[in-house]
C-alpha cells in the first residue's frame, strides 16, 4: 500500500508540474503594473511668451513604486495625433521637462528654456498639446497619457490664488498702499456671525487686523482714511482706525451690507433687511435715500464720478442705478440670479455675479462683458476667462489698477462661506 501511495503522489506532482511548464498548459499571467498618470491639466498661467507660461498638473499613479520619473512633452497640435510612446521615447533631452517622483500630486510650470518635442522654441499664438510619460523602472514599460486639451499661449488676464483665510466671505477693500482687507461674515447664513477683519499685504501675508464685529459684511474706506465696517448681525456700522481700533459709528440699520461715501462725506448704506438705501450725513442724520420693489436685498454699492450710485441685488441678478436725486432704474442684469458686491474703477463698474461664479465688467451705459470665470464652481487657476471661482462675494482694485482682488469661498461641511481665498487677477487686457 505504501508503494501505491507513493506512485499516486508522484503522478500528481508530475501533472501539476506539466500545468506550469512552458510546453504544457496556461501559466498564471504576471499582474499588470499600472504606472499611468491620471487627470492631466494644463493652463496658460503667465504672460512671458515662452514655455514658462505653461503650467502642468497631474495626479500620480496609484502605485508609484515602479515609476522612475516623469517627462512632460509640449507637442504642436498639428502633430499630436502621431505622438505615441515610441515618439515620446525618441525625443531628445531638452525638448521635454523631467520631473522626479514626489509621492503626491504634481503641479509645476515649465522652464522658459524648455523646447517643444520637435526641438523648437515654444511661442505665443501657436496651438500646443501636452503629454506626460511615466518612465518605468527596470523591466517596466513606460506609459504615455492621452493628449491634454489644446493650449495656445496669449497675453491674457491671469487668475491665481493669493491668500487663504480662516474667515467667511464678507466685504473686501484695498487701501492706498495696496493692502487688502477682508471681513468675516461667518461660516453660513445660519451660523454664528463673524467677528474679525483680516489684512493681507501686497506680498500675500495675512494677519488679524481688527475684531469685535457682529457679522462683518460690507466695508469701505472713508474720506478720513478710516475703515467703515457693516455689522449685518446687529444693524450697526463700525469705524476702524488704521491701528485696528474699533468704535461704533451709527446704528439702527436693517441688516446692513454695502457701504460707500460720496464726495461730500455722506455715507450710503445697503440695507438688505428692508430693501432700502440709507443716507448718513457727516452729522449722523439718517434718512432713506431710495427704496422700493426694484431692490431685492441690496448688497453691494458703488458711486461714479458724477454722483450716481449703483447697487447689486443679492436676491437676483440686477444692477440698479440711482441718480443723485434718488430715482432708481435697472442698469443691467447678470446671470446667476444672485449678485455679490460691485466697485467702480476707471470709468466702469465691476460686478460679482455670485450665483454664476463670475465677474463682469459693466459700462455706465449697461453693456456687460465677462472678465473672470468660466462659470464652473471651483478653484482652477490660469487665464482669467478659463479660471474658476466659488461663490465669490466682493472685489477691489490695487491702487495702480494692475490687480483685481476677489474673496471666494472654500466651503467645508456646514460652512458655505468659510474658510475663504483671496484670489488675484493680474490684469493685462483690461
The profile of the biggest β sheet is: 5 strands, antiparallel
In percent, how much strand structure appears in the residues?
A: 35-45%
- Gross morphology: elongated
Number of domains: 2
CATH architecture call of the largest domain: 6 Propeller
In percent, how helical is the residue content?
A: under 10%
- How many helical stretches? 2
Poorly predicted parts = 1-24
Structural class: mainly beta
Average of per-residue pLDDT values? 91
First-last Cα distance: 98 Å
In CATH terms, the superfamily of the largest domain is: TolB, C-terminal domain
CATH fold category name of the largest domain: Neuraminidase
Name of the level-1 CATH class of the largest domain: Mainly Beta
Rg calc:
30 Å
Could you give the count of β-strands? 33
Provide key terms for this protein.
about 425 residues, Immunoglobulin-like, Neuraminidase, 5-stranded antiparallel β-sheet, 33 strands, about 5% helix, elongated, disordered N terminus
Amino acid at each position: 500500500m505504501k508503494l501505491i501511495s507513493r506512485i499516486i503522489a508522484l503522478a500528481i506532482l508530475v501533472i501539476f508540474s506539466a500545468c506550469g511548464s512552458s510546453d504544457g498548459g496556461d501559466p498564471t499571467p504576471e499582474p499588470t503594473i499600472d504606472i499611468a498618470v491620471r487627470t492631466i491639466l494644463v493652463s496658460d498661467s503667465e504672460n512671458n511668451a515662452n514655455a514658462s507660461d505653461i503650467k502642468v498638473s497631474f495626479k500620480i499613479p496609484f502605485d508609484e513604486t515602479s515609476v522612475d520619473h516623469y517627462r512632460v512633452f509640449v507637442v504642436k497640435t498639428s502633430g499630436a495625433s502621431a505622438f505615441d510612446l515610441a515618439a515620446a521615447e525618441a525625443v531628445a533631452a531638452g525638448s521635454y521637462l523631467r520631473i522626479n517622483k514626489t509621492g503626491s500630486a504634481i503641479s509645476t510650470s515649465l522652464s522658459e528654456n524648455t523646447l517643444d518635442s520637435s526641438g523648437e522654441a515654444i511661442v505665443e499664438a501657436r496651438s500646443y498639446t501636452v503629454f506626460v510619460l511615466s518612465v518605468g523602472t527596470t523591466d517596466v514599460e513606460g506609459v504615455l497619457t492621452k493628449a491634454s486639451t489644446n493650449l495656445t499661449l496669449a497675453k491674457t488676464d491671469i487668475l491665481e490664488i493669493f491668500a487663504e483665510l480662516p474667515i467667511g466671505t464678507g466685504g473686501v477693500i484695498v487701501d492706498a498702499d495696496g493692502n487688502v482687507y477682508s471681513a468675516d461674515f461667518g461660516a453660513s447664513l445660519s451660523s454664528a456671525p463673524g467677528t474679525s477683519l483680516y489684512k493681507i499685504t501686497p506680498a500675500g501675508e495675512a494677519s488679524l487686523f481688527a475684531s469685535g464685529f457682529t457679522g462683518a459684511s460690507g466695508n469701505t474706506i472713508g474720506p478720513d482714511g478710516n475703515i467703515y465696517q457693516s455689522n449685518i448681525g446687529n444693524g450697526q456700522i463700525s469705524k476702524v482706525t488704521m491701528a485696528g481700533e474699533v468704535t461704533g459709528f451709527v446704528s439702527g440699520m436693517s441688516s446692513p451690507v454695502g457701504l460707500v461715501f460720496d464726495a461730500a462725506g455722506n455715507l450710503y448704506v445697503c440695507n438688505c433687511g428692508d430693501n432700502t438705501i440709507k443716507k448718513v450725513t457727516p452729522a449722523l442724520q439718517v434718512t432713506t435715500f431710495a427704496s422700493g420693489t426694484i431692490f431685492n436685498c441690496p448688497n453691494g454699492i458703488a458711486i461714479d464720478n458724477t454722483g450716481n450710485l449703483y447697487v447689486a441685488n443679492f436676491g437676483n441678478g440686477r444692477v440698479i442705478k440711482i441718480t443723485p436725486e434718488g430715482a432708481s432704474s435697472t442698469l443691467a442684469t447678470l446671470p446667476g440670479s444672485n449678485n455679490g458686491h460691485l466697485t467702480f474703477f476707471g470709468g466702469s463698474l465691476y460686478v460679482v455675479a455670485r450665483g454664476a461664479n463670475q465677474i463682469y465688467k459693466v459700462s455706465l451705459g449697461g453693456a456687460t462683458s465677462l472678465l473672470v470665470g468660466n462659470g464652473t464652481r471651483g478653484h482652477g487657476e490660469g487665464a482669467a476667462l478659463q479660471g474658476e471661482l466659488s461663490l465669490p462675494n466682493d472685489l477691489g482694485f490695487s491702487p495702480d489698477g494692475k490687480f483685481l482682488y476677489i474673496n471666494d469661498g472654500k466651503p467645508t461641511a456646514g460652512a458655505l462661506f468659510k474658510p475663504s481665498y483671496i484670489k488675484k487677477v493680474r490684469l493685462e487686457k483690461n
